[in-house]
Amino acid sequence: MTVKLNHTIVSAHDAQATADFLVQVFGFRPAVPFGPFLCVETDNEVSLDIMSVTDAITPQHYAFLVSDAEFDRIFDRVRERGLPYWADPFHREPGVINTNDGGRGVYFEDPNGHNLEIITVPYGG
Fold it and tell me: N- or C-end of the chain: fewer Cβ atoms within 10 A?
């Protein structure tokens, strides 16, 4: 059997708003309720299981490998929403994308401060 990531839990102050954000920005199918979660499935069958929490949220990093065409669509949605974006994970290079490893990449945040990244080439080329 091959070991594959199946799902991860994403903490959110408002699970519905966070699920809607991911669906709208990335173009995923609508979230599906499962117990206390709203599950947003990625195109490689990994689900982001959004859970509302009342405690402080420790921001996490979620990186998505996308095609050039998908990058353009997602990045357009980021800019249409007026979201700040950066070329680096530490947010030191605002308003630009990176061209690491011969591809394109950019970072932006979800409504909870999670650091989202889209890249067109995996790290290391």
Answer: N
